[in-house]
Amino acid sequence: MSAAADRLAEAVARHQGGDLLGAVAAYKQLLRKDPDDATCQHLLGVALLQSRRIDEALAELRRATELAPAEPAFLNSLGAACRAAGQFAAAADCYRRALALDPDYAGAHANLGNVLLDAGDIAAARASLQRAVALDGTQAGWHYSLGLAAQRLGQTREAAGHYRQALAAQPDHVQALNNLGNLRSSAGNLMAALECFEKALARQPHFAAAQANRAGTLMRMGRLEEAGSAYKAALDLAPQDPGINRAYSIFLWRRGR
């Protein structure tokens, strides 16, 4: 292994170890010696993105795609930076360019689906996410996103199935638990809904939405003292949340207080 390769390996080890500041410095030092190293350029952009230095990440990742325009992973990373900057159309364009190079790139299909969800193009998002999970059905986040898309399109059975698949892959996925609980509550299966919300709170006690949903379910079950305590706990977690405040006001009105 050459000295340059050794130094890159050291920089990557820092990066993988969570030393993002050290990794950025090491990548920059390497690029001063070899400005056309596309791999190092890409890794610099990724480290900057992970550091939430979005504008810098955009510039460095654009440079990486200029150095290696046929590398789909670099376009995928640039898409992630564009999405983080709120540039949804640009992000979608990056993911589509990556997929033109590699049509079976599951991560790019998933990322395209997520940015289309952000942009409100739900049907197209669902199609992209379906392709992603067809290529790789093991990713909890992809099933969760597909569940969201299906739920927004009114496909509640499909949504519930994907939330369950997300939980099979990642049992502590609290958003999937919360959303599955909401679907079960809407279907009138209150005990199953309550179980979902309580599992979510066992894993993330400060999850205000799950606490509020638990409160609403307890209210519908007639367990009013518990519901009142749950609403107060939710408000302690998110005192300015308009939805929780409104739900608690309705609860108090119904109790005649």
TrEMBL record:
<dbReference type="Pfam" id="PF13414">
    <property type="entry name" value="TPR_11"/>
</dbReference>
<keyword id="KW-0802">TPR repeat</keyword>
<feature type="repeat" description="TPR">
    <location>
        <begin position="208"/>
        <end position="241"/>
    </location>
</feature>
<feature type="repeat" description="TPR">
    <location>
        <begin position="38"/>
        <end position="71"/>
    </location>
</feature>
<feature type="repeat" description="TPR">
    <location>
        <begin position="140"/>
        <end position="173"/>
    </location>
</feature>
<dbReference type="InterPro" id="IPR011990">
    <property type="entry name" value="TPR-like_helical_dom_sf"/>
</dbReference>
<dbReference type="InterPro" id="IPR013105">
    <property type="entry name" value="TPR_2"/>
</dbReference>
<dbReference type="Pfam" id="PF13432">
    <property type="entry name" value="TPR_16"/>
</dbReference>
<feature type="repeat" description="TPR">
    <location>
        <begin position="72"/>
        <end position="105"/>
    </location>
</feature>
<protein>
    <submittedName>
        <fullName>Uncharacterized protein</fullName>
    </submittedName>
</protein>
<dbReference type="Pfam" id="PF07719">
    <property type="entry name" value="TPR_2"/>
</dbReference>
<feature type="repeat" description="TPR">
    <location>
        <begin position="174"/>
        <end position="207"/>
    </location>
</feature>
<dbReference type="InterPro" id="IPR019734">
    <property type="entry name" value="TPR_rpt"/>
</dbReference>
<dbReference type="Pfam" id="PF14559">
    <property type="entry name" value="TPR_19"/>
</dbReference>
<keyword id="KW-0677">Repeat</keyword>
